[in-house]
Each structure stands twice: as C-alpha cells, then as structure tokens.
Amino acid sequence: MPKVIPDKDAVMAWVGDKPIYADRIRRLADVAAKMQPQAWKPANVAATKLFRCVECLRDLNLLLQSGGRLKSKVKQRRKLKIILTPLHSLVEAIRDLANDLENNTDTVKRLPTGARELVPQIRSQLLSISAIGKGSLLSATRNKISAHIDSALSAEEMRTLFRQAETPQVGLWLHTCISVLVDFGKLPVYFWSCEQNGEGTIRILFVEPFVVTLGLNSQGKANRILDVHFVPKPPRRDLLELMMRVVKNSGWMFGPTDVRIRNFVEDKPTDSWAKSLSWLPSICGVRAEDDGRSIVRRFSTDQESYQLIPANLPFFVNDSIQQIAKPEDLLVQ
Question: Can you tell me the distance from the alpha carbon of 53 to that of 87, in angstroms, rounded to the nearest whole number?
Fold first, then answer.
C-alpha cells in the first residue's frame, strides 16, 4: 500500500481535459480460484473486512443452491446444519466491519456526515437478531452440531438443540446480515487494487469511478499520478449481485408469511444510506434514531457533467458519461 493517497480533487485536476479510457471489467478475487492478477483485491482495512463477508457469502450461496434442489426435508435440514458455520462467520465478519466503520480513523474520515453515529445502531440491531454471543442459539448450534460435534451431547440432545433452529429462523438470521451488508456496501470507504502497470507503480480504486495508476518512489511512497481509467463495473457491484443471488437461493427456507427480504429497491437521492434502520427495529425491538441526514453523495466531475453514481446505490447505471474517449468500452457484460 502507498503511504499517501491523492484525493478526488487531485485526480480531477490531473484529468483536466484529457480523455479517460475505460478500464477492463474486473471481478472480485476468489480465494478458491487460481491466481487472478486482473481481479480486484482489498487495498485497505475496510475492504479487507468487507472481503471476509464476500467469502462467507460465496460459501453460503453454494450451500443454498444445492439445498433448494433437495426434495427430502431431512436432507434439507442436514444442509441447514452445515449452513450454520459460514452464517456464524458472516455475522462475525459484519460485526468486525462495523467496528472498523466506527473506530478506524482512516475509515471514519471517509464516511458521509452522520454515518458514524448510525453504525452502532445497525450493529446493535444485527446482533439482537443474529446473536453470536455466549449462550445464543446461533453460536450454540454452530459450536455443538455444525463446526464441531460436541462429544458431551447425546443424540437426543443434539436433536433437541437443532429443532430450536427452525429453517425460517436461520433464514431470518441470514437476511438480517444481508440487510446490514447492503447498507455498509454503500459507504465510500473501500480501496481496491489490481495488477501493476509496470515496475514501481500501483493501481488502486479509491475514488469511484476511477482506477488510478500511481508512481512509487524508492521508499514505496506514492508521489505522482501516472494514469486514470474509468471503471465500468466497481467491486461493490459484484457484492450486490452476490447478495441478490443469496436472497434468491434462500427462498426455500421461508414460508409465505415468514419475515424475509422480498426485493431490492433503488434508494432515492434524498434517502439515508442506512435503510436497514427502517426494517430491523420492528423485528429486534431496538429503537433507531436515523433522522435521514446521512446521505451518500452523488459523484460529479463538474456542475455540467452527468452524475456517474446514483445516490446511495451500490452499483452504476447505464447513463451518458462525459470525457470518455471510447464509449463502446463501457458496455457491461
């Protein structure tokens, strides 16, 4: 990581009237795949903690896909028992991300106004529903019959414990995590890097939608901007699409009237980023105090240009873009 990162104004000053070419479409790195030099990799603490969540979601999505195809309820329940382990890890990872959003000074300074005050409310609601503390049902089932098989439990005790974790309850734990992670994914605090563009350089995405090639001095400190490319598909789009797949593939866990996420709705420009504060309080009973003032601002190159990022929305939309020399390169596949 470079020691110094230029801000948005420095990037835009360098761009000036220069044409900005589109970068290639990249994906988030996958630890189960072979070497992926072109992939996005975490480049700061916040992104590293978010990437832990991504890995948990990938495991959950695979299990949910196969679980939905099972015709036997017994086999579905056994699949559910396996799901408890990556789900517990996901709650832990989101809790750690929330702690970083609240306490890491490098992360906090990039948050929208008022966001830091909302993070502990969201974390409290998450842990009230998807509790992982000592004695909680999720932790007990994960520790005693999922990640480990407790030697002190009889078969009947195992069955009794597992019966407490009904399928819709596990689904609610999962959808609570998704609701919170959708919100946290909107925050402009994550840095991502990709392959170098020659020796003594680093390529980093820290101001969407631009990946910047920085030159490094002999001490490994970034001291100049060498190039800027437009990112047609940012890493958090991968995260959002993954969460949407998880929600779709978890449908078999719920009955017609069970509490669950049923749809993903685009935020309005005046909405607070913390949309989970309007859904989770009715479930967990923890009061929310969001006054709607914490907004993830739209990105704009200047007053005359188009908005490149919709307010609070964790992905790009198809829109006209100024200063792009090859608009055909922007097609997202």
Answer: 10
Q: What CA–CA distance (Å, rounded) separates 84 from 326?
A: 47
DSSP one-letter code for 40: B
Q: Which residues contact 112 (CB under 8 A, 6 or more apart)?
A: 187, 188, 273, 294, 295, 296, 297
Read off the DSSP letter of residue 24: P
Q: Considering the entire predicted model, what is its pTM?
A: 0.84
- pLDDT (tens digit per residue) in 81-130: 899 999 999 999 999 999 999 999 999 999 999 999 999 999 999 999 99
Cis before residue 209, ω within 30 degrees of 0?
A: yes
Phi-psi region of 232 (alpha: psi -120 to 50; beta: other; left: phi over 0): alpha
The backbone torsions φ and ψ at residue 224, rounded to the nearest 5 degrees and listed phi first, read -165, 150
List of residues 6+ apart from 189 with CB closer than 8 A: 44, 46, 101, 107, 110, 111
Residue pair 326/20 in contact by the 8 Å Cβ criterion: no
